[in-house]
Write a structure and sequence with these properties.
Radius of gyration: 32 Å
Number of strands: 43
Helix content: 10-25%
Number of helices: 14
CATH class of the largest domain: Mainly Alpha
Shape: globular
Distance between the termini: 103 Å
CATH topology of the largest domain: Transferase(Phosphotransferase), domain 1
Number of domains: 5
CATH architecture of the largest domain: Orthogonal Bundle
Structural class: alpha+beta
Strand order of the largest sheet: 34-38-39-37-36-35
């Protein structure tokens, strides 16, 4: 009897499941049917994606598509929303496929908040595919509408971005990202002040299509082309415009079940267009992150959103030029939004020019090194404000005279936002309709049985999940705006690699002349000794960094086993070649120390990724026609994740003997302080003319401890019994090639900074930002 009863029960359950499946499908929606807030569509056959009403607040829902699995600490990853700006009520809201052929999303059954605007007389089916595309098609297989044609903030592999898409905008036949801020709109990326060709774009473009493929390559028809650092098959990816305005490609790490950034358009957080709004300054440090500050004389507009920026806390009469003056802010730039450009100007002319415009908020006064004069940039709007030690020129801020007199540079404070949660009420009157009890019971029964089916489905999926993907294949371009050369082109440009201008562990550098008559440095990376890894590191790191004290990369070549980089050519070669000549006077040496510090500080502090050089030495500091330094050769660089730690482990010692920090030798955690140590040794070499390695060393014995002998010698020569340095003692260590023509105060400062940088204890060393501040402080005192 019991067995018979069990058989009957199983039969009834099977019939129930069959009835529910036929009456309420979990993988498709047909003409005349609808989905409620409790229903979902599951992609077939593996269920990678789910579509349904996603909760975005208390009784507020958006019809969305998301990854079915929970990633990033148990959170769902949404890839599309139909009504992200108009959430609907959780009760009686439905997505309906009408007989007219249109998909309609209604709020509480009364207000239409979204529609597909499609029409068809034939039977239709709405189905979610395994690639994340929600597609409405007819029985003949024709496609009437698909979510891939209307992206919100995410692009999935295989999804084409066209001129009608709204995630990015493509004016003037080029691929742009547009800022639509509360007060200001403009081109966010790429750099709007550059020509199309300078940004690596092809303006003769009629197709206007861009696509992210399954291997991790994103290509646009205007020749914008990037490849993620994990390029290869079998990895789930998405390209997303994040809330901060930066665009990133995320790859799914199945081991940690987290999304990892494998490409992003902007490495510098403060260079994201309009990130702090108008009349504000952005600063960034890897310890504290990005911070926004109102410019002097301005106050924050909204305590809840920095996008609104700041507003004047003063009134400035337009017809009284004597009522206003200019406050000088060092190392501050507001790029863009100029009233005009006035070349070969004096400071007085620039000030008067700004005073004559009622709309002028201030001006920048920059020196053009190529032309040898200053240019004036009066500002109609103070937008994209950024404070950085890498900016050599100040901003002159127009303010009332009373504000300038009372302002203290040190009193500039960050304003913290008050991010309270507000629930916005929708101005809609809902009319309650009576509901039958049997309808509720049926819905609950359907929900329970449907949940049981989903649990069974995912249990089966988990047990049968297939793992491995194909091996990740070679490296190609991973950054934007580069020219791709053929090996034959570079061989011809270098005259069969005949003129060698440098060499190191990573490869040999040759001089070449490109087809546009530009002189270039062509670096051939070694095929052995991790040549491909060094190529990937240099291309993905240097190519996306932009600083006047970092070498600029123009292009690359990947062809068979050949890995080549094309750099700007530096007329005076490396610091190592010039250090023991009579070409470097005291001023040039100080400028080299300061410029090198700025370049390293930029790498350590101002990039979203924390970049370690790992091989700071005179051979990797190049000098341009004015003997200004540029840090080069990032072949040994390492990108560190900022996820709560400053430390990382390395598989092998990196760097050059004589400049290697003690952490490498004693297998201690590696941080940015290894570069600080190497920089300190370079500064001592600049001061003394004595190298920690080779023929210019203090002793003939060239052991690992030789740099410590240089440090000890400097300490002994510069410190008397009372522990203080005297001018006579300082003079004993200065390189005789300077011929006693040096600034004693600056020499003392450099000695102090260098000795702090080469402390055995890494925690006793300053950061490169602190080094820059100390050197700039000396300059401002003299000024």
């Amino acid at each position: 009897m019991g067995l018979f009863f069990n058989a009957i029960l199983i039969s009834v359950l099977a019939l129930s499941l069959a009835f529910v499946s036929s009456s309420k499908s979990t993988d498709s929606l047909t003409t005349g049917s609808s989905l409620s807030s409790e229903d979902v569509l599951i992609s077939k056959p593996h269920g990678n994606f789910t579509a349904g009403f996603f909760s975005v607040g208390e009784n507020a829902y958006c019809f969305s598509i998301w990854f079915t699995e929970l990633y990033d600490h148990g959170n769902y990853t949404i890839v599309w929303m139909a009504n992200r700006d108009r959430p609907v009520n959780g009760k009686n809201s439905r997505l309906s496929l009408l007989k007219s052929g249109s998909l309609v999303l209604t709020d509480a059954g009364q207000f239409t908040v979204w529609t597909s605007s499609t029409q068809s007389r034939s039977s239709l089916q709405l189905q979610l595919h395994e690639n994340g595309n929600l597609m409405l098609s007819n029985i003949e297989g024709g496609n009437l509408w698909q979510s891939f044609n209307s992206p919100t903030n995410t692009l999935l592999p295989g999804q084409s971005l066209t001129q009608n898409s709204v995630i990015f905008q493509k004016p003037d036949k080029l691929f742009f990202w547009i800022l639509q801020g509360p007060q200001t709109a403009g081109i966010s990326w790429p750099d709007p002040w550059k020509h199309s060709w300078d940004n690596g774009r092809y303006p003769y473009n009629n197709s206007k299509v861009a696509t992210l493929d399954s291997w991790g390559r994103f290509q646009s028809s205007d020749q914008f082309d990037i490849i993620t650092v994990d390029y290869g098959p079998g990895i789930q990816r998405r390209l997303t415009m994040d809330f901060d305005g930066n665009v990133r490609v995320y790859s799914l790490d199945m081991a940690s079940r987290n999304w990892k950034v494998t490409w992003q358009s902007t490495l510098q957080p403060c260079k994201v267009h309009g990130i702090c709004g108008e009349n504000s300054l952005c600063t960034y440090a890897h310890e504290t992150g990005r911070k926004c500050t109102c410019a002097p004389g301005y106050k924050i507009k909204s305590q809840k959103d920095w996008a609104y920026g700041c507003e004047p806390d003063f009134q400035l009469p337009c017809n009284d030029s004597n009522a206003s003056g200019f406050l000088l802010l060092q190392n501050v730039e507001f790029y863009g939004y100029d009233i005009g450009f006035f070349s070969n100007s004096t400071l007085d002319n620039c000030q008067n020019l700004c005073l004559n415009y009622c709309s002028c908020k201030g001006f920048e006064f920059k020196f053009d090194k190529d032309k040898g004069y200053y240019n004036c940039y009066p500002k109609a709007s103070l937008f994209n404000g950024h404070r950085s030690s890498g900016f050599d020129f100040p901003i002159y801020l127009r303010l009332p005279q009373s504000t300038i007199t009372s302002f203290d540079q040190k009193s500039l404070q960050e304003t913290n936002l008050k991010c309270t949660v507000d629930v916005a009420s929708l101005d809609r009157a809902y009319q309650k309709k009576c509901q039958h009890g049997w309808v509720k019971s049926s819905l609950w029964c359907t929900l329970v049985v449907g949940t049981f089916e989903i649990i069974c489905f995912f249990t089966y999926l988990f047990k049968t999940q297939r793992g491995s993907s194909a091996r990740v294949q070679g490296y190609t371009q991973v950054a934007t705006g580069f020219r791709k050369f053929t090996f034959a082109e570079l061989k011809k440009a270098s005259r069969n690699f005949s003129t060698e201008i440098g060499r190191g562990g990573g490869g040999i550098v040759y001089k070449g002349v490109l087809t546009d008559n530009q002189v270039a440095a062509i670096k051939c990376l070694n095929e052995a000794n991790q040549g491909e890894a060094e190529f990937l590191a240099e291309l993905s790191t240097i190519g996306k960094l932009n600083h006047m004290n970092l070498i600029e990369i123009w292009g690359y070549c990947v062809e068979g086993k050949h890995r080549l980089l094309v750099y700007e050519y530096m007329e005076h070669g490396s610091l190592a070649k010039n250090l023991h000549s009579d070409r470097l006077d005291w001023k040039k040496r100080y400028d080299i120390a300061l410029g090198t510090a700025k370049g390293l500080a930029y790498l350590h502090e101002e990039c979203l990724e924390w970049v370690l050089h790992c091989d700071v030495k005179p051979q990797n500091i190049l000098l341009d026609s004015n003997y200004q330094p540029k840090v080069a050769d990032f072949g040994l660089s390492k990108l560190l994740n900022r996820g709560g730690t400053d430390e990382s482990t390395f598989s092998r010692i990196r760097g050059t003997k004589g400049y290697i920090a003690p952490e490498w030798v004693f297998n201690l955690p590696i941080t940015s302080k290894v570069d600080v140590y190497s920089y300190g040794i370079v500064v001592l070499e600049l001061l003394t003319g004595r190298s920690p390695v080779g023929g210019h060393s203090m002793e003939e014995n060239t052991s690992v401890m030789e740099p410590r002998r240089l440090v000890t010698w400097v300490k002994e020569k510069t410190h008397e019994a009372n522990g203080r340095a005297s001018p006579a003692a300082i003079a004993k260590i200065v390189d005789p090639a300077i011929n006693a023509e040096f600034d004693m105060a600056r020499v003392e400062l450099l000695v102090q900074v260098a000795l702090q940088c080469v402390e055995e204890d890494k925690d006793a060393r300053p950061t490169m930002n602190q080094v820059v501040d100390m050197l700039l402080h000396q300059e401002s005192d003299e000024y």
